[in-house]
Amino acid sequence: MSSSWRDAAAALADDLKAVFGPRLRSVVAYGAHLEGDPAGPITALALVSNLTIEDLDACASHTGRWGRLGLATPLVLPEDEFRRSLDVFPLEYGEIVRAHAQVYGGDPFTNVVIDPGDLRRACELQIKSHLVHLREGYLEAAGGLRAVSALVVASAPAFAALLRNVARLRGVSSTERMETTRRGAEAAGVPADVVDAVLALEHRPTAGAVDAARLFPRYLAAAEQLAGTVDRWEK
């Protein structure tokens, strides 16, 4: 973490301490910025003992300054609600558990376990929704190279997240974003060159429209492979 990142995170924690006092249990940072993407916002989760409308109003008064510091609006949750929602949001909360940095308080993820069955079902929903989105987007593009290219580029981050979720199904616990993505591709049998090409587009959104559009057939096949793998997944 850079010093500026730490400064922003510390400022967020100080503001939340002013709002919640002893009710603030912990603050952790997570997400793409933490894993090496300096262009991404600094995302954080704050767990509190209880949350009221007055607390929300007090937090809202800080959001402008948080934005200027490069902070996304933090996810603020009652601690008990977070733990009772792991079955509902196993992918989203699992990503936070997988790679995070402690900013304030104790480790909120002690004894946190995400059920593999919940994870598999959530992966299936996410992957099949992604596949439907790609097919619909391709139809709407009506053969236009720029529209197909935009579809591939815009969906690249979600595809990478899908691969990381499959890696978690396999039990991969690495905090390295790229390694986890590649391990998910290996588990699903997705060709490495397709993964590399899609991930490159994620970081080069201005890549040539023709190249991105030509990638689409293989990209779609990779998404179909991913969906089939998760659909047939065995514990």
Overview of this protein structure:
- With 235 residues, the chain is of the alpha+beta class.
- The protein has two domains: 3-105, Beta Polymerase, domain 2, CATH 3.30.460; 116-231.
- 62% of the residues lie in helices and 10% in strands.
- It contains ten helices and four strands; from the N terminus they run αββααβααβααααα.
- The chain has helices spanning 3-20, 53-60, 63-68, 79-84, 90-98, 116-141, 145-169, 177-188, 192-203, 209-231; strands at residues 24-30, 43-48, 75-78, 100-105.
- A four-stranded mixed sheet has the order 3-2-1-4.
- The longest helix has 26 residues, at 116-141.
- The two termini are 36 Å apart.
- The model has no long low-confidence stretch (mean pLDDT 88).
